[in-house]
Amino acid sequence: IDDFGFWYAQVRANFGNFFGYGSAFLQANYTGNDAGKTYNLVNVAEGLANPDNTLTKQQLIEQETFIDKSKRYNIEFQNNFDIIETNIFTWGVQYTNTQPNSEGTFLSDGPTGNPIKLNDVGVYLQYENEMVRNFGFFGSARYDYNDVFGGRVSPKIGLAFKPKNHNIRLAYNEAFGSPPIQPAFAQTFIT
Length: 191
What we know:
The protein has helices spanning 41-49, 57-64, 181-185; strands at residues 5-15, 23-34, 71-83, 87-99, 118-132, 135-146, 150-161, 168-173.
């Protein structure tokens, strides 16, 4: 790793009274990186050890340098409110835009490939109810959509028991995460 850079910025706003409907927050993030002059050390070492190699060390390094100038933007809004104190609703929406950029050094986004841009959208709703003192029910559903890999619903349901200073939960849930970028778009795997 040589001259690698990483940048992260976040803006967040909290609203204690969101138009009379409970509390809310809004946050936005930016993440970016630049691999600098990073190269695949294993391949360079193997090239130098190969008796048939005709390249200099510098030529091997240039051949094995990979570019990663990726960016990711996230925005999320969440609101929670109650109806008759024991009925609590939480809902929200998330958006992520991922823009990997390897200039074709290890992903399929090179001069002859198309730029890779992934958009993820998630929406969710959760309901909680304290049915009797210290005992409650909760259920939620979340829908995630990725413009390359499609969409999926993820449910969650459970019971909560809150004796004194403890919280005991019994739950069933499913979750979805978009596949990683490298296996989906790699033309070379970095080891």
